[in-house]
Every structure is written in C-alpha cells, then in structure tokens.
C-alpha cells in the first residue's frame, strides 16, 4: 500500500513536471507564434505600402513621358508587314516620327 | 488524519460517558434520522441546482450554435470597430488602382497638454494646412481625454510632430485608402469617408457586397482584390487624348467611353474635368459631374443609327429611296436639312449625309409606337445601373406624338446618358444581342454568355449597320472621314446636338459626339466620344460640328488604344463589308 502510494506520488510529481514542461513549451511556442504573426502583419503592411509605391511609379503618366523621350510611339501599320510585302517603308509614309504620324491621314 | 482523531475522540468520549436518561436514546435517534433526512434533502437540492445550471449552460450553447453566429458577431463588432478594412481594387490586368495602407493619425489628450497655445502654434509649424483655431479649440477642453487632430499623416509628417516633443500628443495607426494613380478613373472608383467606408462608385459597391470588414485597429483585409474591367493603360490614353481635345477645341467638358461590345466590359470611362478620389468634395462640384452616368443629354444625329436600324428591322433596305426634297411639315413645325440634297435619298444616304428630314420620314413610316417599342427593346428608355452606381434616368418627351417621333429620330427630345446610349448601341454592332455594361470583371465562359444572350435586333440588321458605319468613315460622302485610322477598319456616326437653352436651342452651344466601333469586320469595341460646348478653331475653320472635332479625337484615341487592346494594325482593307 505504502509502495503504491509512493509510486502514485512519484507518478504525480513526474506528471506535474511533464505538464509544466509542456505548458512552458506551449507558452514559448505561443509567444513565438504571436511574434511571427506580428512580423507577418508588419511585413503585410510594408508590402501594402510597397505595392502602392510600385503602382505610383508605374503610373502610365510617368511611363508615357519616359517612353516619348525614348521616341516610342503607338504601333502603326507601317511597322508591320506581310510575306508578300517585305518593305513596309516603301508601302507607307515611311518613318514614324511622332504620335501624329501614327494617327495617319485621318488624324487631324 | 482528521478522521482518525475524530474516532479516537469518540472512543475517549464513550469511555467516560455517563449513561443516558431513559428515552434519550430514542430522541437522539429520531433527531439523527431527521438530520439525515435534512442532509439528504440539501444534497439532492444542491445536485438538482447543479444539474439545472449545467442544463442551462448546455441549452445556451446549443442555442448559440443553432442561431446565426455571424449576426451575433457583427452586432458585437460593429459598434466597437474604428475602421473598415477594404480589399485592393485592381484593373483587368491586376494593376493596383486602390489599396489600404497603414498610416499614423495624430490625437491629443487635452488633460495632459501643458500649454495649449504653444502646442497649437508648434503643430501649425510642421503641418501648415492645419486649422490652428480649430486645434486650439479642440485641445482647450480639459474634460476630454481624446481628440483627433489630424488623420492620415505621412510618415515624414508624423516624425516632425514627434520631434516637437509635446506632451499630450500621440499617434494611432489607422487604415487609409491610397490611390496610387491619382485621379485616373476617379469617377468610377468613387471615394471613402474618414473611417475608410465606401461612399460612392466602386468603393461603395465593395461595401454593398460585404467585401469590407469592420476592424478594430489597423488590420489589412485578407480578401482577394476586386478586379475591374477597366484597363489602366487604355484609361490613361483616353484621358490624355481627351484632355488634349478639351484644350484644342476649347470645350467646357468632355467624355469618352470604350466598351467591349461582346460582353459589356467597360475598358475605359472618362469624364473631364475629372475628380480626385482623395478630394471627395470635388464630386459635388457641378462642373465635375460624371457626364457618362450622371447627366442626360440630347445626343443628336448619332441617334440616326437607331432610326436606320428600326427602318431595316421594318423591312426597308439600305437602297430604299425616300423623297427628302421638301422640308418636313409636322404639326406646326418645319424640319429642314442643314444641306438639302435636292433629290431623293436612299436610306444609306440619309445616314451618310445625316439628313434630318430623311430620318424623320423613316421614323414616321415606322410609327411612334414602333419607335418607342424599339428604343425600349434596346434598353434606351428604362433604368440602368452598374456596379459603380445607378445611371441617370432618360428624360422622355412629356408627350410622344408625331413631332416627338421625328425629333427623337435625329436625337432631340429624348435625353439619355452617354453610358446608356453606348449600351443600347451595342446590339446594332455585335450581331444583335443586348449586353449589360459592367465595371467588375466576371468569369463567365462562352457557353454561359451565349445562353444569357437576348437578341433584340436581327444579325442582318446589325451587319448592315456595321457596313454603313464603316462606309461613313471610309467612303467619300460620309461625315466621319476624319475618324479613319489606317489599318484599324473603324466605323462610326457623327452627332452635333444643339443644347436647349432659354427660348429654344442655342446654335453656338452644342454637344459634338462620335459613336464608333472597331474593327468593323469583327467588331470588338464600341466607343463614344463627346465634347461639350466646343468652340470653333483655326483647325476646324471656325466650325463646331462633330466631324471636325469629335471624329478626329476618336481617331487619335483609337490609334493609341488599339495596340493596347491587342489589335495589330493590319494592311489597308477598305472593302471590309460588301458595299
């Protein structure tokens, strides 16, 4: 009886210690999860700002201005050709100099 | 241990106890029995109460799980929420148009502010647009512990305020709506209020369809972005060209709409002067109303597209000849052509030369009931709404008599919003079926779409309208030759509508419009460009007709947006239709 009692007490103490260890680990993990969630939230907020900044930088108004400075104009039929007509410059009005050229005869 | 002591005490007590008097034993036994009964009753009562309590708790749990949990949660959260987390709004290709960002907002605790004047003055030094008197008044009330001073500061501004080191000022992180493309598509996007709640346009739509979460603090929405049908690049190109046209033709306002004629997807919707979604007050300025949806206008001769379609549906052909030599006398009115032909005209010529007399005769031939029913069928007389809000109701003639039948045939007497007109013109171009204009992208497959199609005009009528619209641009006699874009096979119809004023129509104040579609051999997009009160310029030789301003504006826009929409300008195919 005494041995059983002692064993029970020992078992109880071991269980209590194990429980405490598990509890401690759980709390530690919870703290880790909370810290990671906080980091995720912060990163998400940073991503939101970066997305907005990227969209702002890629706004057509800015890209269009840079494209014009590089001499780019909308696609024009004189830039395309078929198998039977390999030289578009001979067919059309020649080199595209401006957006007005791209509009063509009906453009003004 | 206590049990053992009790037993020992009992034994000791027994050993030294004096014998009880006679009858005492029975009384004691009876008392003991009565006490045992009372104890049992108390135990049963306690157990009963606990069972009842457990039953109550279980019952409550079952009730909560059975009843609508969402509603319970909402009713608890809503009053506590300080802001609304909104999903991003992106264009058809996923480019960001609006999104939430976390920004600091400045508040004060007046009770711990030491010097009100110093605080107000120093704040004005770093936030120049702040109202000093309002701030001073707000922080003077020492009974308050929380007063907003400025919501939505930039990080740089927040740092400057922080550097002031004033006690009683603090920051709270809040969600603010950012529009990285500025005023692009401002009318469509709408705006949000100070708590990030949608109040107009697509922003309001997000609230209506419950895509917005009430949150406490600054938690971003986890919902998928809302994808619009708009194309940022096309929208910008249209806005840019329209702004140029506004200056070039000295117009008061301008609007343009580009819609996919096959499914109603609106690719670009522009109304100038535009609005900035961040400056919500701009939406209430009369000059900045969204002319595409919030105004109704008599759009003039572009209505002849409907009249000719009606005549074709009634059995006429493009070759049917109508005698337009004399002015048309209806009731007490006389309808004349600006440039009388002096000979009978075919239905095709009535369209190409934009003859009011011919158009009136075609409408009278069809009859007022048939005309009204036809316009009703096209959706031109009913209510219309898109995700961005309801569209202004058409203004119908008070009485639809003979003269109204004639004037409506060439676009006077019936005022509609440009968006509703574009939606109604789609069946005349796409093969005859109605489409509902929309700003939010859908994921229908082709089969579903074909099942939902409602045919309102015959495919043959639509084919002939396409032919004549192309002829009007590519031919020698049409009014829309300045809208031609080499390789694009664009077709269209001009409309110059005098604006009604005091005492009648004003000759010098017009709305110039050009209804177009491209490419006409396989139409994909319909476009309506309108210039409000353009002035004569050197380029137009002082004239204000649509063929000289709206048509070339259409050409400029089309030449820019066609490549963006995937059209490679092909070799010249002028005879795309069998005319």
SSE inventory with pairings:
The complex is a heterodimer of chains A (108) and B (579).
Chain A: H1 2-57, H2 60-69, H3 88-91, H4 99-103
Chain B: H1 2-16, H2 24-66, H3 69-80, E1 83-85, E2 89-90, E3 96-108, H4 116-126, H5 132-140, E4 147-150, H6 155-164, E5 169-178, H7 186-189, E6 191-192, E7 198-200, H8 201-208, E8 213-215, E9 226-227, H9 232-248, E10 253-260, E11 266-272, H10 304-313, E12 321-322, E13 328-330, E14 333-335, E15 345-346, H11 347-352, H12 356-366, H13 368-377, E16 385-386, E17 389-390, H14 402-409, H15 418-430, H16 446-452, H17 459-474, E18 491-501, E19 504-518, E20 525-532, H18 550-564
Parallel strand pairs in B: 2-9
Antiparallel strand pairs in B: 1-8, 2-3, 3-4, 3-5, 6-7, 10-11, 10-20, 12-15, 13-14, 16-17, 18-19, 19-20
Give the tags.
heterodimer; A: 108 residues; mainly alpha; 4 helices; 0% strand; disordered C terminus; B: 579 residues; alpha+beta; 5-stranded mixed beta sheet; 18 helices; 20 strands; 18% strand
Count of β-strands of chain A: 0
Number of β-strand runs of chain B: 20
Helical amount of chain B? 25-40%
Structural class of chain A, by secondary structure, is: mainly alpha
Radius of gyration of chain B: 38 Å
Count of DSSP H/I helices of chain A: 4
In terms of per-residue confidence, which ranges of chain A show pLDDT below 50 for 5 or more consecutive residues?
A: 88-108
Topology pattern of chain A, helix = H, strand = E? HHHH
Question: What does this entry show, briefly?
Answer:
The complex is a heterodimer of chains A (108) and B (579). Chain A is mainly α. Chain A is built from 4 helices and no strands.
What does this molecule look like?
- The complex is a heterodimer of chains A (108) and B (579).
- Chain A has 108 residues and is mainly α.
- In chain A, 69% of the residues lie in helices and 0% in strands.
- Chain A contains four helices and no strands.
- Chain A has helices at 2-57, 60-69, 88-91, 99-103.
- The longest helix of chain A is centred in the N-terminal third of the chain and has 56 residues, at 2-57.
- Chain A is rod-shaped and about 105 Å long.
- By secondary structure, chain B is an alpha+beta fold.
- Chain B contains 18 helices and 20 strands.
- In chain B, strands 2, 3, 4, 5 and 9 form a five-stranded mixed beta sheet that branches. Chain B has a five-stranded antiparallel beta sheet with strand order 11-10-20-19-18, sandwiched between helices. A two-stranded antiparallel ribbon of chain B has the order 1-8.
- In chain B, a hairpin with a 6-residue loop joins strand 19 (504-518) and strand 20 (525-532).
- In chain B, helix 10 (304-313) crosses helix 12 (356-366), helix 10 (304-313) packs across helix 17 (459-474) and helix 12 crosses helix 14 (402-409).
- Chain B is elongated.
- Residues 1-11, 70-80 and 572-579 of chain B have low confidence and may be disordered.
- The A-B interface holds A 41, 44-45, 48-49, 51-56, 58-61, 64, 74-77, 79-80, 82, 85, 99, 102-108 and B 88, 95-97, 99-102, 178, 180-182, 184, 218-220, 232-233, 236-237, 240, 473, 481-487, 539, 551-552, 555-556, 559-560, 562-564, 568-572.
